[in-house]
TrEMBL record, chain A:
Belongs to the mitochondrion-specific ribosomal protein mL49 family. The lineage of its organism: Eukaryota, Metazoa, Ecdysozoa, Arthropoda, Hexapoda. It comes from Drosophila willistoni (Fruit fly). One of its GO terms (cellular component) is mitochondrial large ribosomal subunit. PROSITE patterns: SUI1. The gene is Dwil\GK25645. This is Large ribosomal subunit protein mL49. Signal peptide: none annotated.
UniProtKB/TrEMBL annotation, chain B:
It comes from Drosophila willistoni. It comes from the Eukaryota. This is Large ribosomal subunit protein uL4m. It is found in: Mitochondrion. The lineage of its organism: Eukaryota, Metazoa, Ecdysozoa, Arthropoda, Hexapoda. InterPro entries: Ribosomal_uL4, Ribosomal_uL4-like, Ribosomal_uL4_dom_sf. GO terms for cellular component: mitochondrial inner membrane; ribonucleoprotein complex; ribosome. Belongs to the universal ribosomal protein uL4 family. Its main location: mitochondrion. Keywords: Mitochondrion, Ribonucleoprotein, Ribosomal protein.
Length: 184, 296
């Protein structure tokens, strides 16, 4: 049995050979790479006869199906529901009674982050986008973290100018849940 | 001169035409924002531009800012209307650290250091061994242009041209603009004018106007369109302390360089729309990529 017959008996390979026949060359959007590009590196415009016939249609009815697939330009507003399966909840408080306010990010998330430095040896929890009385919020968050540490003291740093609080250690989940419970 | 008289007479004959078009345009804006104004406002009605918060609800808890719209057709100040400014653009947290980073970036990215020092290979001469290796009781040397010698080459000296180009992260540039606009407004250095139409081409008119309204020694006038009316171009051409700029050229350095920032209503609307889009855009991650010089 020669090699060609083996090939013919293998179904998958036959299909592959058909596919390769159907698409003779690899299709790409750019004829030339964009690296070191200049206006000379683009293919010059060909005579109009070289291009396929097209029909220009204004506002075709099918366009709404294309629009449905296009991503929105800006982050859409979340749909109002009673409960969300992910545990996410919309912001409820506006900070009038507490004196401070933690704004959501543009993706409607609570801005609590973990900064790791020194090869993961130092973990800092950062609360960002704070407006209003940042020192009251710092006292509040520190008591929450100290409760989570079974009463041990916790080191914090407040940057009032940029509205950020840095807390030593990984307390992202604790603080995020706390802020969500407060309505932020 | 003749043109001057013509424009003046046109204004005398038909002073309401410009106002009319403005008020109708204004009513369009208002109708878009809120369905409050139905009929076109009467001629003398003030421009009340209400902010539309449906598209971009304010993240900032600061109260929204309101600013007077001033006229430019006379030297004497007259309040033409009132504009509500979006707090995320005009009442943002004044991040002076980000403003400083923007200024430093704008100074540096265009700076090319021309300081240059020659290495031992580039200094003239020095090919011959100054004295034999052994027998003189002197230190061994191979070249009089060695860096040990007076008049020799320099090790690790400055080499020209050295560029200091870098790109500030995109959102630091956006925050720089919002911070500086907020700072300018808070310091009463931001004025909003109806349009950039002035009645004459005389620089004295602009000088008097600036004196009368106590605008700073230097004034930056920003409009949405990049082609300004002829009169203001002639009037400010000879004045080094008054500059015109389209909104797409607005930058932190120029705003701080000039004492007073003067925006037209169109410019305010355009800036708000562009900056709020950048603060809410869905594909913001694509702006965090490495800056490529050859991006097409």
């Amino acid at each position: 049995m020669s090699a060609t017959t083996i090939l013919r008996h293998s179904r998958g390979l036959c299909q592959f050979a058909k596919l390769a026949q159907a698409t003779p060359s690899v299709r790409s959007f750019h004829g030339q790479p964009a690296l070191w590009s200049s206006f000379r590196s683009s293919q010059p415009v060909q005579p109009i006869e070289q291009y396929p016939e097209i029909e220009v249609v204004q506002n075709p009815p099918e366009w709404k199906y294309v629009e449905r697939l296009l991503p929105p330009k800006t982050v859409p507003k979340p749909l109002a529901k009673n409960e969300y399966p992910s545990g996410w909840q919309p912001q409820k408080a506006d900070g009038t009674e507490l004196g401070y306010f933690v704004a959501r990010t543009k993706n409607h998330m609570v801005p609590v982050y973990l900064n790791t430095t020194f090869r993961g040896q130092r973990r800092l929890t950062v609360v960002r986008r704070i407006q209003g009385d940042i020192w009251a919020l710092e006292r509040d968050l520190r008591s929450v973290v100290e409760q989570a540490r079974n009463g041990k003291l916790c080191a914090t740093r407040v940057n009032e100018l940029s509205g950020q609080i840095y807390i030593h250690g990984d307390y992202v989940d604790v603080l995020r849940e706390h802020l969500k419970a407060k309505g932020f | 001169m003749f043109k001057n008289i013509l424009t003046r007479s046109r204004q005398l004959i038909n002073p309401v035409a410009r106002n009319l078009s403005l008020t109708t345009k204004q009513s369009n804006v208002a109708a878009e924002s809120e369905a409050a104004s139905t009929a076109p406002a009467p001629l003398a009605a003030p421009l009340i531009l209400v902010q539309n918060y449906t598209e971009y609800p304010p993240v900032n808890r600061n109260a929204n800012r309101q600013a007077w719209i001033e006229n430019t057709d006379t030297v004497a100040e007259r309040k033409v209307g009132l504009i509500e400014l979006h707090p995320d653009v005009f009442a943002a947290q004044p991040r002076v650290d980000i403003i400083q980073e923007n200024v430093e970036w704008q100074r540096k990215y265009r700076y090319v250091s021309m300081a240059h020092a020659k290495t031992r290979a580039e200094v003239r001469g020095g090919g011959r061994k100054p004295w034999p290796q052994k027998g003189q009781g002197r230190a061994r040397h191979g070249s009089i242009r060695s860096p040990l010698f007076k008049g020799g080459g320099v090790i690790h000296g400055p080499r020209s041209p050295t560029t200091h180009f870098y790109m500030l992260p995109f959102y630091k540039r956006v925050l720089g603009l919002t911070s500086t606009l907020s700072v300018k407004l808070a310091q009463d250095d931001l004025h909003i004018i109806e349009s950039t139409d002035i009645p004459t081409t005389e620089p004295q008119f602009i000088k008097d106007l600036i004196d009368e309204r106590q605008w700073g020694p230097s004034v930056l006038i920003v409009d949405k369109a990049d082609i300004f009316p002829e009169n203001i171009c002639y009037a400010t051409d000879e004045l080094g302390f008054v500059n015109l700029m389209p909104t797409f050229g607005l930058n932190v350095y120029s705003m701080l360089k000039h004492d007073t920032l003067v925006l037209t209503v169109d410019a305010v609307k355009h800036l708000e729309q562009r900056l709020l889009y950048q603060l809410h855009r869905n594909d913001a991650i694509s702006k965090g990529d490495k800056f490529k010089l050859d991006q097409v």
